[in-house]
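[Amino acid chain]
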Amino acid sequence: MTTKEKVYKYAFIVLSDSRSGGEKKDKCKDALLDSMDKDYKMEYFNIIPDDKEKILDELKKLVDKNIPLILTSGGTGFSKRDNTPEATKELIEKNTPGISEAIRFYSKEITPMWALSRAVSGIAKNSLIINLPGSPKAVSEAIDAIRPFLGHGLDILKGDFTDHD
C-alpha cells in the first residue's frame, strides 16, 4: 500500500527596510529553504518594508489565498520600526502561543537575546501565521524548534488528521 506524500505549501515574507530597498542582500530565504523539510514547498516569497500597514496588507492577501502556512522574518524586536507582531495580532483570530514559546525556549539554549523577541503566532481563517526572527541563523534555529510538530498542526488546521488514541 502506497501512502500519498504530503506537501505543505507556505509563503515567506521578509520584513526589512534595508533589504526591501536593496541596501542589503537577504539571506533569510536561503536559510529557510535549507531548513525546511522536503515536504514543505514555498509557494510565495516577498521582501517588504517593515511598515505595519504594508505587512497587514501582505498578510491579508495571503490569508485570502488560503495559504496554509505563512512565515514572516524580521520586525519582531524593540526597534520603532519593528511592527510585525502588531500587524499579525490585528489579523489573527486564534493565538497559538505555544509555537512562539517553543521558538523562544529553543533559542534560550543558544543566545541570551531570546527574551527580546516579541514574535507571535496564530490562526487567521485557514492560515497559520508564524513570526520568525530576522537573522538567517535565527530563522534556521526557529524552524528546528517547530519542525517536530508543525506538520501535525497544519493537518489539524486543515481537518486532515486521525483520532488520538
Residues 8-42+52-158 form a domain with the Molybdenum Cofactor Biosythetic Enzyme; Chain A fold (CATH 3.40.980.10). The mean pLDDT is 93. Helices lie at 17-20, 28-35, 52-64, 84-91, 97-108, 136-158. The CA atoms of residues 32 and 72 lie 11 Å apart.
